């Protein structure tokens, strides 16, 4: 857990600083927080796998916390940039050093000694931002401007995107099947292709635990349909995960995967399926000789 916390804090800090620096040059609205959340979520997911965290709630809360910390750190960096900017202006206007802090607090509408962050956020919301696609970020009069409540909504949406991805991805990773007796994550033990037309039949065969029927569906190496079997690679008593999916090509030359069936079968239920689908000599086949454990 300490390792997961360290990974989370480090990636939250690195991403907050990176996006703060990026914002100085260019900041694609809504796309930046999307990638920010995605990257944080991916890093945390690998942390969850590495730390063998199997509690989706713990993984999700850790992600949520890291997402919030990362975004708050980013807002604070922006606050400090605003503070430096105003202090520079006060200096240029000849305000004496001893009075600059007081002048700045007055601008924020806070008493001396109070925490400035909220005052700065309020002030920055009043000023708002201009969303532009003009080169170099130079705003045009026709560009969309948001300020006040709109600015708070904008920040809230960004926070939601970042914290949402940062929470959901590791929570999903923690749900991955795990062999408690061997203390290791499940691995894919076999992947078989089948034609898309036979997918409904394969699904029914899994439902009926009909091993010969399922084997009969595997007729080609056509990759439109994929039946994958997951299990523990270190033992031969863990449950077996049966996953059936359809793969289609999208417009962007990518593959879209749609899960049609995903089920954990007990070892007893899975044995006829393993026997008929795995090639002879496969270590997970029920008739394979028991090899000494690694
Ligand atoms: Zn095992």
Characterise this structure:
With 294 residues, the chain is of the alpha+beta class. Helix content is 54%, strand content 16%. It has a four-stranded antiparallel beta sheet. It has a two-stranded antiparallel sheet with strand order 1-2. It has a two-stranded antiparallel ribbon with strand order 3-4. A hairpin with a 4-residue loop joins strand 3 (178-179) and strand 4 (184-185). Helix 2 (31-51) packs across helix 3 (56-92), helix 2 packs parallel to helix 6 (149-174) and helix 3 (56-92) packs antiparallel against helix 6 (149-174). The mean pLDDT is 90.
- Multimer state: single chain
Which percent bin holds the helix content?
A: 40-55%
Characterize the biggest β-sheet: 4 strands, antiparallel
Order of helices and strands: HHHHHEEHEEEHHEEEH
Strand content: 15-25%
Radius of gyration: 27 Å
What is the total tally of β strands? 8
The total domain count is: 2
Arithmetic mean pLDDT: 90
SSE layout:
Blueprint: H1 2-25, H2 31-51, H3 56-92, H4 97-108, H5 116-127, E1 129-131, E2 144-146, H6 149-174, E3 178-179, E4 184-185, E5 187-194, H7 199-207, H8 211-217, E6 225-231, E7 240-249, E8 255-265, H9 267-277
Antiparallel strand pairs: 1-2, 3-4, 5-6, 6-7, 7-8
Helix pairs in contact: 1-2, 1-3, 2-3, 2-6, 3-4, 3-5, 3-6, 7-8, 8-9
Bound molecules: zinc ion (ZN).
Zinc ion binds next to loops.
In short:
The chain has nine helices and eight strands. Helix content is 54%, strand content 16%.
Keywords:
single chain, 294 residues, alpha+beta, 2 domains, four-stranded antiparallel sheet, two-stranded antiparallel ribbon, elongated, binds zinc ion
């Amino acid at each position: 857990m300490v390792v997961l916390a360290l990974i989370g804090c480090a990636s939250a800090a690195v991403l907050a600083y990176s996006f703060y620096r990026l914002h100085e040059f260019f900041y694609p609205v809504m796309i930046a927080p999307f990638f920010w959340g995605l990257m944080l979520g991916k890093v945390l997911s690998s942390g969850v796998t590495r730390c063998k965290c199997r509690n989706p709630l713990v993984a999700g809360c850790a992600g949520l916390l890291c997402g919030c910390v990362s975004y708050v750190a980013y807002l604070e960096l922006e606050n400090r940039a605003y503070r430096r900017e105003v202090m520079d202006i006060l200096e240029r206007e000849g305000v004496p050093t001893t009075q600059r802090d007081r002048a700045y607090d007055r601008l924020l509408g806070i008493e001396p000694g109070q925490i400035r962050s909220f005052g700065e956020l309020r002030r920055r919301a009043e000023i708002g931002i201009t969303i532009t696609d003009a080169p170099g970020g130079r705003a045009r009069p026709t560009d969309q401007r948001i300020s006040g409540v709109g600015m708070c909504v904008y920040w809230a949406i960004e926070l939601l995107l970042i914290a949402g991805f940062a929470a959901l991805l590791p929570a999903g990773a923690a749900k991955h099947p795990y062999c408690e007796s061997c203390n290791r994550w499940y691995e894919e033990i076999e992947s078989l292709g089948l034609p898309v037309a036979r997918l409904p039949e394969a699904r029914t065969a899994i439902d009926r635990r009909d091993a010969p029927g399922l084997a009969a569906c595997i007729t080609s190496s056509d990759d439109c349909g994929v039946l994958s079997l997951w299990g523990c690679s270190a033992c031969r008593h863990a449950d077996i995960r049966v996953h059936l999916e359809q793969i289609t090509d999208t417009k962007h030359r990518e593959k879209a995967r749609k899960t049609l069936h995903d089920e954990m079968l007990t070892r007893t239920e899975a044995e006829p399926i393993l026997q008929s689908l795995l090639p002879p000599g496969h270590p997970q086949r029920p008739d394979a000789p028991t090899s000494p454990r690694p």
